[in-house]
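Incident log, structure service

09:12 report received: a user says their structure output differs between two submissions of the same chain.
09:20 pulled the input from the user's history:
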Amino acid sequence: MNLPFELAPWLCWVMPTIGSVIHFVLPKGLGRARYAAVVLFSFVAWVMALLMIFSMPSHGHEELGGFWFSLPEGASVGIGVLLDSLSIILANLVAFLSFLILVYSFKYMEGEPGEDRYWFFMSLFIGGMLMLILANNFIFFFIGWKIVGLCSFGLIGHYYTDDRKYWIGGPPPHPFQKPSRCGLKALLVTTFGDGGLLGGVRERRQRRPPREHSAVLGSCAFLWLA
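09:34 re-ran on a clean worker, output below:
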C-alpha cells in the first residue's frame, strides 16, 4: 500500500474532526463562507473513503497504526485504523451521507441561533462516527463512541432555550418535549451504554487475543449505525 492510500483512512476521520473547529479559526468577515469550509472538509473525508475502496486488502484486512500507551496489566494499546470490506463500506456510507447532510444544512441553518455551535457538533459527530468505524482496537473505538454520544447531546438539544416553536414531538395527542430535555435523554442513554461497553471490552480482552477483535469491531459499528 503506497503513501496516499495509507493516509486515506486517517484523513477520513481527521478531516471532519479538524473541520469542526475550522469555522472558529477563519475570520468572521468571511461570513457564511466559514461554514462552506466545514462542508469542504467533509467532502475531503468522503473522497478519502472512496480512495479506501482502491486500497482494499487482498488478504482480508490490514491494520495501520502504532503504540499509544500501556494498560496497568501490561497490555499495550495502539492508535490505529482497521481496513477491511465492512469498515470501508460503512466509512463510505457515513462519509457520503454526512456530506449530503452538511450541504443541506448550509441553507437550512441559515439565520438559526447557535449556528457556530451546530457546525462544531455536526462535523465532530462525523469525525467520531468515522473514528469508531475505522478503529482497530476497543479503546480507540470507545473514544469515537463517546464523541458521537456527546455530539448527539449537543445536536438534539441544540435549541436549549426551549422556545415553544422548537419543541420536539407531536402531533397531538402525542406529547411535545423540550429540546433540552430530549438532549439530556440522549446523553443519559448513551452514557448508560458506556458502562456496558466498557465492561464488554474488559471481558473480551480477558478471553480473546487482541488480534481477534476485527470482526467484533465491525459488528459494533454496524449496530451503532443502525
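09:41 both user submissions now match this output. Likely a transient worker issue. Closing.
09:42 reviewer note: Helices lie at 3-25, 33-54, 85-108, 115-134, 138-156, 179-207, 214-225. The longest helix spans residues 179-207.
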